[in-house]
Amino acid sequence: MHQAAVTIDPAFRIGPADRRLFGSFVEHMGRCVYGGVFEPDHPAADPLGLRTDVLDLTRELGVSVVRYPGGNFVSGYRWEDGVGPVADRPRRLDLAWKTIETNRFGLDEFMAWARLADVEPMMAVNLGTRGVQEACDLLEYTNHPGGTQLSDLRRRHGAEQPYGVRLWCLGNELDGPWQVGHKTADEYGRLAAETARAMKLIDPSISLVACGSSNRDMPTFAAWEATVLEHTYQHVDYISLHNYYDPSDGDRASLLASAVGMDAFINEVIATADHVGAKLRQPRKLKLSFDEWNVWYQARLQADLDRRGWVQAPALIEDDFTSVDAVVVGDLLITLLRHADRVGVACQAQLANVIAPIRTRNGGPAWRQSIFHPFALTARYARGTVLRTEPTGPTYDTAKYGPAPVLATVAVLDEESDELTVFAVNRGDTDLALDLDLRALTGRAGSGATTAGPTGLGHLVLDAGADPDATNTAEHPDRVVPRELETPTVDGGRCAVRLPAVSWNVLRFAGRP
Q1: Does the predicted model carry a pTM greater than 0.85?
Q2: Which tens digit of pLDDT belongs to each residue from 7-21?
Q3: 3-state class of 94 per DSSP?
Q4: Staple partner for 135: which of 125, 269, 446, 484, CB 3.0–4.6 Å?
């Protein structure tokens, strides 16, 4: 059995666990919208056509913010198509995913869904085929109280009060040659800066996200960020990151170390943004919006696109996630928390059906995929202040990332409830004995006497060692679920726990009893 250790100290603070780190993404792609969040003929549909079973699962998942309507889809989208009487809405060709878009679900329906799901909307504007004026028009329709053509149009459509959207993406992946309206960094940077200035004239309270690279492997990565930020640094609040982690090659060792790549990506974008900030003499530190991330079997996408013509809402990249994928997703969430001082928004892509934690059948059930559980548990327990941890332990070899740590950890201290949660992943193929040093959490009572220190509350685990390829299905929706292990025992401020092979763990303690 491998041995590892980690010390937890409340003085080693990274920053607050922003609720916006637990975001998701709804795009007009595949069956994410039609047959996912929206299916008027479904037995569980409400009067608006929204699937209440998916709404229930969204709330259970703990989603805080949802990015909409894309994604690649937004780069050819006319937002006006999705408002007003449904019977008057046009059918369009969606060039991004080679589908027919009916526009039965649009901006007003999404805002109604977001309100019922209790999530914050994050809107994207089309800077692929459109520009400054169209972005301003959308913002006026969405956020202006009334007394203008577009704000009064929203009111006639039934929304008397403005939607008050605070987060806005300035386009999507414009560095990608696959994107409708693909641009050079200079072209995009100039357009994004002009759009940002105009939008903040309409509503100075909004926060804006400039497009970073589509992924870390883009040939223009880092140079794209540097050029775009030289145009936009003073006008935006975030730079975006997108990256997916692909199990298709069967290299499980590298897949389990995906968070090593995410960590490097985040650090590289921070370094680039800070370089530009220094060059421009800007004291403000730009935040990051990791608004597309997930495990994705990407090799399947082109086959899905090639085998059909123009259709409505086809099943597209509806990946069945394994128990190993769930461990990887939990590890990626640990990495996002470890950068809570700079990553202010994160969105797992996507919410329903399309590489999603929630799966559905048209007219049938909805169920939780394996990756649902680490997200839901992290959103539930990662409340408070993120603490820096520097575990010591063994490494293992990976083809993609070289020597990778077997153990990754992060801790979150909720000072209101006085509870500590340690998230830990064992990437190795054998059990790991972990020594937790919690002595710094010993508090002092009001009389000045030293308290006994923390006590264990529970140990939840998602492990993939016994059945790495297990998946949840409509017929067997609970094959991969968290299980309870023995409650950790703390003796003299120290705790010894066993982390099963290939596992993601949630260790909970009462901080200062």
Answers
A1: yes
A2: 999 999 999 999 999
A3: strand
A4: 125
Q: What residues form DSSP beta bridges with 409?
A: 424
Question: How would you list the strands of the sheet with 419-426, edge to edge?
Answer: 13-16, 385-387, 407-414, 419-426, 503-510, 455-463, 483-485
Residue owning tokens 């990756």: 371
CB 450 within 8 A of CB 442: yes
Distance CA 99, CA 78 (A): 15
The gap between the terminal CA atoms of the chain, to the nearest Å, is 32
- Which amino acid belongs to residue 243? N
Closest CA to 107 of 53, 165, 57: 165
Q: Which two tokens stand for residue 415?
A: 């000072």
Q: How far apart are CA 102 and CA 385, in angstroms?
A: 44
Question: For residue 461, what are the β-bridge partners?
Answer: 483, 505
Structure tokens that stand for 379 in this block: 């959103």
* pLDDT tens-digit readout, 414-432: 988 899 999 999 999 999 9
| Distance (Å) of CA 2 to CA 406, 429, 432, 463, 485 | 9, 10, 5, 16, 19
Contacts of 476 (CB under 8 A, 6+ apart): none
Query: CA 312, CA 98: separation in Å to the nearest integer?
Result: 9
Find where tokens 């069945």 sit. Answer: 320
Q: Which of 121, 106, 124 is nearest to 48 (CA)?
A: 106
Which residue numbers are catalytic?
173, 292
